[in-house]
Amino acid sequence: MKILPDRASSYAAEVDSVFWLILLFVSIGFVITLAVLLYAIFSKRERAKYFTGSNWREYRWVAFGMIGIALADFIILGYELKVWHKTQWLPEETHYKVGVLARQWNFEYYYPGPDGQLWTNDDIIVRPPQDTLVLPLNKKVMVELRSADVIHALFIPAFRFKYDCIPGRTIQRWFEPTKEGIYMVSCAELCGVLHSRMRSTVKVVPESAFQAFLQQKRMEPLATK
Amino acid sequence: MNKPSLGVLGVSLLIFTEVMFFAGLISAYWVARLEAGEWPPLGQPRLPIASTAINTAVLLLSAFTMYKAQKQRKRSYLAITAILGTAFLVLQGREWVRLIAFGLRAQGSLYGAFFYTIVGAHGVHVLAAVIALCYYLWKFPKSLQPLALFWYFVVFLWPILYIIVYIL
Amino acid sequence: MHKEQQSFIRKYIFSTDHKVIGFQYTIVGLFMALVGGYLAYVFRYNLAFPGESIPFFGDALDPKTYNGFVTYHGAIMFFWVAMPILLAGFGNLLIPLMVGTDDMAFPTVNMLSFWIFFLSTVVLLISLFLPSGPFDGGWTIYPPLSADGYHVKPSFPASIATGGTLFLLALALEFTSMIMGGINFIVTTIAKRTQGMTLFRLPIFVWFQNIAALIFMVSVGPVVAGAVMLLLDRTVGTGFFDPARGGDPILWQHLFWFFGHPEVYVILLPALGIIGEIIPTFSRKPLFGYRMMIYLVLVAAFLSVIVWAHHQFVAGIDPRMGTFFSVGTILISVPFAGVILSLIATMFQGKIRFTTAMCFATGMVAAFLVGGLTGIFLGSDVFDIYAHDTYFVVAHFHYTVFPIAILASLAGIYYWFPKFTGKQLNETLGKIHFWLTFIFFNLFAFPLFFLGLAGQHRRIANYEVFDYLAQEPFTTLRVIATIGVIGIWIAQFVFLWNLIKTLRSKEVAERNPWNATTLEWAADSPPPHGNWQTPPVVYRWAYEYSPENQTKDFIPQYVQE
Ligand SMILES: [Cu+2]
Ligand SMILES: [Cu+2]
Hints:
The complex is a heterotrimer of chains A (225), B (168) and C (561). With 225 residues, chain A is of the alpha+beta class. Chain A has helices at residues 12-42, 56-88, 207-219, and strands at 96-103, 106-111, 124-126, 132-136, 141-147, 152-156, 161-165, 171-175, 181-187, 199-205. Chain A folds into two domains: 12-88, no CATH class; 96-224, Sandwich (Immunoglobulin-like), CATH 2.60.40.420. In chain A, a hairpin with a 2-residue loop joins strand 1 (96-103) and strand 2 (106-111). In chain A, 39% of the residues are buried. Chain B is mainly α and 168 residues long. Helices cover 81% and strands 0% of the residues of chain B. Chain C has a single domain (18-522), classed as Cytochrome c oxidase-like, subunit I domain (Cytochrome C Oxidase, Chain A), CATH 1.20.210. In chain C, 63% of the residues lie in helices and 0% in strands. Chain C contains 15 helices and no strands. The radius of gyration of chain C is 23 Å and the shape is globular. Classes of the chains: A alpha+beta (225), B mainly alpha (168), C mainly alpha (561). At the A-C interface, helix 1, helix 2, strand 7 and strand 9 of A face helix 3, helix 7, helix 8, helix 9 and helix 10 of C.
């Protein structure tokens, strides 16, 4: 059994490495604390030893524990903030843009039309009954998230990607698919009665196939907005 | 033993909680205002700064009479305070009626919604304070301090709200 | 101090006696725990066996009812179980006794606070049975969903009798009641301590209750403001959180979590206070690092009100803010590590006696350790992006809230039961109760970590449409978790049996059956209205266990040597 699902984006491995790093420290902390707890339990005696921990000599062991935790915290933070920077700040250049418009209870996907702009009248739109977000392999994609009604969240576990779609604002984030395949997409924010059934899929294809897909979409009669 | 009076302590804590409540309202107001850009939004009636200044004066005067009531322990000053507090409420109510007539609605824009909510929340506090005052007027207990403390809070909160909502 | 004879109603219903009020809170809280636990059982069963009919309930849950049930389960366990039992219940029962006074500073306000709480409970239960269905917008009440997406124009006053409005109203009433209680706690502690009871002689429980009340009063104002705004949106049709009218749904999240995060500490601190009384008693040792513990908790309390936005990493907040909130959140682990280690150090080289109360206390520390440590995963903004709103979060907060609300409450109940009823709960049944509860809790909560890591998101009635999650081993893990919940239920019947058996027995408990040092043990069991014949005088701090060069292994606070 895999602990974390398949990885299919450029930063998925780094996100996972943050998990494993924290797990390492947390496990050490847990094992040590539990061992100390058990040791304390088995150190019991006929008459308890009187000490209050009100001087440094007695308190230092707890203090060392806190310093240990603080050190672990700083190592974790030092590493994870680097990954944070990489995942959150938009890269200098992105190759493609997609728009995600969530509504109760499905996702609609927008690709810029001939004007190269999102959210304009010539956008290429994928909406139900089609529900697949087609993405090019190994290309940085900027995602713009919006919602038409309540708050939703676009969750693509394989990309380690999850952001809210919030009515009234546009959130810009990015990812780079790195593995061909079809991946599950879910809505991760309670959004009403059929939240339980709000899903979609992502299909990662080579760039040429992606271009062909866009071409074919352009040919289809435009669905009126 | 020189322990602080229970009533004063209790009311201080209550005021502390209330301050956090109004801080929440006001920060929400500022967030909305900064996001909106144009404030007040176009086509919304302006708030009556001048006539509200009179209300403000009435309320501030009531703090003075409350101070007198406390100092001289006179029922009469307490009664005047109650009257001034009620007068403030009536004047505020009259203004609301006029603003509604001018078309300032709570439903239409955030501007109206925040105005009625913040001013209304303060009004409810004044009303509560007036009711407490009437109770004190009836019982006239040994220490007027807890009531006076709450009254000062309600009075001196108002100029702050007045400046934030009406003037700035 | 002698109080006159009172009528039944004045004595047991509209009583101003802190002990009666404490009992009232605890009983309502325990009742609501049954309601919340029942809801948990129903939807857990639904998750394990989707589409099948549910024993003791009926048909499989439709998504709307499912959403309603998870919403109420969360809200009830937080605001109608943990708060009334830990803060209001134990606080009312113990604070006046522990500081050595006859009653709370404002007994009438105290009585009023309970009845407002009772009203809030009634309103909440009514909202659960409305013909239009219960509120189903999640216990965090995020608009626009919680304002029905602003699709419906509210018509006042008909819009009051809707699930969402009544839910908010119930919350507002509950907060009011707890504010009144908190004021009472703090004023009583400041101004009504008995002779000799200096601040640093107060039992740790009293300190933690007061810090909890203080955190509550700092953080609750903004969420009440938000609740008023949301109520107006729902009833008169304002648009505070409606983006179409310039409102901002994220604003609610800030107001809510500014309160929501510290709220965890509001229930955690009374729980730690209970543990902090029990462990010294049954280790026959002074509480380790008493003063440091207070300082550490004050630091944690301060941090707790500035880290709220860690719940909003995925809501598109500025990444730089993410950094700030991540650092703050993760650093909270430091003071709490100090507190937990001090509790363990208290047991070190002690004369430990594993009574049921001590078992629950130790179990609480161990389980809470898992909850606290897994918080570091979620405090890390990078990993939280993945784990947010998955079962990893669910597992994490059940490992914090269950030890707090259930294990610590039960520890306290076993410990103080003889004081407030004059009877002692059966220890054998108590041990069975503890082990069943503890084992089944882990059986329930631990699999959820794996489900969450696999990407299983929350608040889904049925995973059949999510291909990956609908297969093995995830289906089995969900069944195991459900067995855990059923097991926790069975364990509580042991407790119920124990309660009935004990209350019906004629055996009378000693005044101080655990040989504890704090003041409440000096009073009669149960203490009469007014608590003392003559108010006790305090001569020392609260933890003089096994002093050197003494034959006795404890010297109570009220004994002059
Ligand atoms: Cu959704
Ligand atoms: Cu939090």
